[in-house]
Design goal:
By secondary structure, the protein is α+β, with helices and mostly antiparallel strands. It contains ten helices and nine strands.
Amino acid sequence: MNKIETIIKKDYTLHPLRIEKVESGSGSTYLIKTFKNQYIGKLNNRKSIINIYEKVEPILNKQGINQCKVIRSNKNLLTVNDFVLYTYIPGYTYHQFNPIQEKNALLYMKKYHQILKTVPFVEDELPLENHWDKMRSIDYLINELTPITNDKDIHKGIDILSQYKYVLKNLPKQLIHSDLGPDNFIFNQDEVISIIDFTPDYNHELYSLGHFIYWNYLWDNHNIQKIDLLNYFHYYKEYSDLEDIFLIILLHVALIRILGVLMIDHKKKINKRLDILRQLLKIIVR
């Protein structure tokens, strides 16, 4: 009997017929089928993040943003040995959006963050447990990335980010989802029905858009165009005065993605991430 099956039977009194690894989403995610219901189980979920999720989930659900609910254990615990059990939302995820799906994802994400803006939240509620958490600090990013690489484009990006760091720090901030790749959206055909794998951060709403663009446009694009980036930005007309800052936010995201890899494994190839950075620099430095 594996770890998940043991926990489900002992701590939730469920009797699974089948436990299947789910390829999409982040972390170790499993679809758990019982005679009556289906559930999502996740390993390696930090309790600190689940505490934040349980705070926002009912608010999002009440406003029509469908969210999985956390199922507490028999002892009323949110997590059991880093395992979390969720209700299941049926639907599909895609590795790449078609134009209609992308538009719907952007609109859904905007509504999602408009609701998160109403959630009382302070930055101190966020965990500071690993290097990804620490990279929320621009100073940490600059100080850690500068000495571990001699790449001139990375250093050029750091120099530009350094010039804007006080502007970025002073932007109005809110609770956001900071890692919205294509497999973080559940669809029914072309309609978004849920956003999953909550990755909390405390930053400007455009920072979340920056990560969305990174995974959904920049990641597989060898011909990045400024007009395409601005087409995403124009979904947020209320921030029209931040167009130049929006491009710096994209640069910030690109540098985070480079440091994230280098801090885990210095030998891992970062060519794709470097290409994204270099294309962004050509757009910014003109």
